Amino acid sequence: MCEYYSQCQPGAVPVDPVPEDPTTPETPVATGTPAGSGPGTTLQSGYYWIRAVAAPNYHKYMQTKPLYATGPALLGDYTTAGQFQVQDGQLVQLVSAPGEAVKLLYATVSKTRSINNASLAVSFTAEKNTYGTFKFGGDDLQWSVSDVTRPNPSAWYVCTGQQMYINLGNYAYQTPSGCADQTIHYYNDRTANN
User: Fold this and answer.
1) In this structure, what CATH number is given to the domain that contains residue 165?
2) Which segments carry the region annotation Disordered (predicted)?
3) N or C: which end of the chain has fewer CB within 10 A?
């Protein structure tokens, strides 16, 4: 053993490394309490289904879990698809039943970078989003903000638990482990389908 130089010491890895928590401090947790009873399985006037159109999430639809509750944006089954529209740069989810006063949840983008420092978590909350704006670019859902340059404003990640993140990098390049690159698109048929 070398007495004078620390670089002579053999490296060591902890026997039991501590696993990293994939959630960020700003990632909301579902409340378990629905914000409304939901619009049902027939598309309401002025709203859209939003879904992925490529493997591995082909025809998986945007929603929250539990349904109509605050929490992370997810892709899931067509039978539990949410109904959405973009209003003044806000992506909104309709959570009220037909005939009830309109009640919405708002897609909120975290300012905290997550997953390899290359993504932003998206969740649905009762408060309007204050970071960036949403829009449809044709039928694809896009997000942008002035302080972030994105090579593809339509690029998303779908990661563990089907949670959705905005991809800040190039589409299909250096995709983080446990995630899939996706673009998501509106669909306006009367009912969601597989």
Assistant:
1) 2.80.10
2) 13-38
3) N
